[in-house]
Amino acid sequence: MPQWIAACATDDIDEEDVIRFDHGAQTFAIYHSPEGEFFATAGRCTHEDVHLCDGLVMGHLIECPKHNGQFDYRTGAAKRAPVCEALRTYPVKVESGQVFVQVAE
Fold this sequence. Notes:
Layout: E1 2-9, E2 17-23, E3 26-32, E4 38-42, E5 56-58, E6 61-63, E7 70-72, E8 78-80, E9 89-90, E10 92-95, E11 98-104
Antiparallel strand pairs: 1-11, 2-3, 3-4, 4-9, 5-6, 6-7, 7-8, 10-11
């Protein structure tokens, strides 16, 4: 059954940045868009299993730190080779200055 997990405070992530959030055996990447919205994806690149939190955020794209493949973190879509498999995305909500991610247990 899905549940909402507090991932971080809204102040923990600068705009156009990403942080890592671990919950159980899962790793997530939490993003703060230029428009002030928050998003969550799987935390590892689908190409080489590298942590995306070490990547570069540009607008709505996250660039993998290993081979520079890019994803649109809003949709998970693969945008630049060598990545070709989309990232899984997760619902996010913000309440009382906290970012929550909906995860399946």
